[in-house]
Amino acid sequence: MAGFASRADGSSNDDGSEKSTPSKESRKPGNSDFKQQRLKAWQPILTASSVLPVFFFIGVVFVPIGIGLLVTSNKVKEKTIDYTDCNGCDKTLVTEKNFTKPCYCTLKFKLDTAFDSKVYLYYGLSNFYQNHRRYVRSRDDSQLHGDLKMKVAGDCSPFDKANVMVNNQSVSKPVAPCGAIANSLFNDTFVLYQINSTKQRTHIPLSGKNIAWKSDVNDKFKNPSGNIVEKLKPFAKPSFWQKSIAEIEGYFKNEAFIVWMRVAAFPTFRKLHKIKEGGLSAGEYEIDVTYNYPVSAFKGEKRVILSTSTWIGGKNPFLGIAYIVVGCICIICGAVFLFVHLKVRTRALKNL
């Protein structure tokens, strides 16, 4: 037995060699520059000579840009007409609870100056929260893409089915287009007239084309292939609609419908409705409104906006004001820091 080496636990191998005990896996990070935090770093040394020019440069650049944006925004001509309860229509619709029977009213206004070039007609809503989480999700994108199925997306509930009368019997059918967004489609209509000196009205044609995003029209919304009307027969219209999607021009690719389906980020918003080519001359005008959309239930407001545009879009002074404010703050901060720097430097030189 003397020729055998003993093991750590008192045993030994047959050949006399010892068995090594397995060591625990080390938790030490690998020896790399990244894991050992040895990567090269650069930390700028902020001095007066490097910081002060930046403040003045931002201020000198931002202020003129802001002034330019503000002046351009002010060149946009805009006319807003509120028609929340035009001719008592809103109260009439809510009282009778018959939203399939429209109400009619006329809006009269005057343009003091001519609206040159293209004129955009918007409708505006207030206190309407299109950004609500459940409202935003309440749609069936595959259905809007032309893929009609008898079982619609669950997010459309409770606007996924509707009861319709077939042979004097109530039958439940899936809705197309389904969901809360489609069901609440804005359906007021506007007809514009110009009033001449003899108080006669001249109809001004408005176009509903090219009002939606091209990406939406070309990619997100498509009609079913084949006979669209036949494929839409098994489906019911949304409960708040006066017509079915099969009776609307363009079907799912109707641009007014596409504009509404792109939800707004804020409760007060405007959406493009029509376009007038060639501008509008100064004078008196009237808009005949088919009032189908009551807003008193959610304490909202409605308005019609006529507006021109510039290279930065419609009237919005916020961006110009923001540039001017930031530029002025930078200039003031730069001047204060420069004064402090010169004062401290002069005091330091006197103490030498």
Using only C-alpha atoms, the radius of gyration works out to: 35 Å
Major sheet: order of its strands?
A: 1-10-3-8
Overall 3D shape? flat
N to C succession of SSEs: HEHEEHHEEHEEHHHEEEH
**Number of separate helices:** 9
* Most strands sheet: 4 strands, antiparallel
Structural classification: alpha+beta
The CA-CA distance between the termini, in Å, is: 89 Å
Kindly estimate the percentage of residues that lie in beta strands according to DSSP.
15-25%
* Fraction in helix: 25-40%
Low-confidence stretches: 1-11
List its traits.
single chain; 352 residues; alpha+beta; four-stranded antiparallel sheet; 9 helices; 10 strands; 28% helix
Explain the overall architecture.
There is one protein chain. The chain has 352 residues and is of the alpha+beta class. 28% of the residues lie in helices and 20% in strands. The chain has a four-stranded antiparallel β-sheet with strand order 1-10-3-8. The model is unreliable at 1-11 (pLDDT under 50). Helix 1 (48-74) packs antiparallel against helix 9. It has helices spanning 48-74, 89-96, 133-137, 141-144, 180-183, 214-220, 228-232, 255-261, 318-350; strands at 78-82, 103-111, 119-126, 161-166, 169-174, 189-195, 201-204, 269-276, 283-291, 301-307.
